[in-house]
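Fold it.
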Amino acid sequence: MQENPLNERAKRAREIAASPSGYKVCEGCESIVGVSVVLCPNCHAYRFDTSADRVVEQAMLLGSREQQSVTAADLQ
């Protein structure tokens, strides 16, 4: 049985919030990406907010709602 997508997003958000130093928030589309990413895979922006507070805040926001953006995986 597949887990509810919203539960899966909340779980992933908790994982990100537990170790925010491994992530950053894209200033173009507000996606959360790995700290080593140079260009956002969703919007191709190159400006990011690396502050832990911002990463945790955005993770909790995104984890509390259904996906609203189109990602590269959605286009395959």
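The chain has a mean pLDDT of 88.
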